[in-house]
Structures are given as structure tokens and as C-alpha cells.
Amino acid sequence: MSREAQLAATRQKILNAARDQFLVKGYADTSTRDIANAVGITQPALYHHFSDKELIFVEVIETVGGELAANMNAILDADEGDGLNVLTDLSAAMVAIHPRDAFSLIHGSFQYLRPENQGKLGRLFATDYLQPLVRFFKSGKVKLRDGVDPMTAANFYLTSLAPLFAKFHQLGGPELTQREHIQVLLKLILFGVASE
Prior knowledge:
elongated; mainly alpha; 196 residues
């Protein structure tokens, strides 16, 4: 294997390990030492590939967001099912990629990031996370209340997903399937808790 191929392979191992760490523990609770240990390299070796933790995090979120956007757009392109079922499929795609709440993961990192990386993550979030959801809410699959536009609906939806990632308290009870848990939450998001 050439030196370039070895460097590329190590760089990819760093990104894979960082993805596992960041998506589970978040930005603040992941250290470059954690990432290096998971790869089996030293911190100085990690810094040979990435100058700091921020750059690794941004690249991980860029990759994860791109995968999520592709998955969500494929679901929207298939255009199968009613609004609740399509939104359930979109939510399942999110849960499959993110082991914790994506909104909190990304926005919770902003306090630690330089302004240019905050801006980059903000743009990635808008493009990869929000735009497919705006597309869904524009589709007419669900009727939005007067005064609620698709962007507001998409933002509210994303900020309301945290219960899907709870391990100890699951809406509807532990006997439900993941899809059923998602639908319990989505019915609350879409229809509220009161009948009138």
C-alpha cells in the first residue's frame, strides 16, 4: 500500500471513530484522545490528519447530514403513503443515522466552535436536515394550520424529536415497536394533546 493510501485509510478510520464518538456522546464529551484511542493511534498522529477537533466534527456532520438528506429525499421521491406514514419514514431515517437528537447534538456544539464553523454547520443543518422536511411540509401530505409555514413546521418537528432517543422512558410504553413509538410522537406533534 502506498503512503498516500495509508494516510487516506488512517484519515477515514479517524472519521469513522469520530462519527461513533460524536453521534453518541456529543461534541463536548468527545475528546481527540477518545478518537485516537478508538483508532489505535496517538493524538499527535491524529493531529497530523486534522488540526483540531472542530474540523473533525464538521466533517462528520457534513457526511452524516449528506447521508440523511439523501435518505429523506429518496423517501420523498418515492411519494408512498399518507402524511403520517411518510413522516414516520422520514423520522425512522433520522433515528437510523442519529443515535441521539440531531438538533441538540448540532446546536449544542455551537458554544464550543469558532464562528466560521458555526456558520458552516448552520448551513449544513439548513440544507441537509431542514430542507427535506420543508419539502415534506410543502407537499400537502399534511394540512398545516393557518399561520404555520413549512419552515416553521420543519423547525418545530426537528426540535420535538428528543423523546425518540430516550432509553428509559418511551412514549406509549416499552412494548411498542420503534415505528409505533415514532407514530405516537408524530401524532402528538401533528395533532397535539387536546381534542379541542
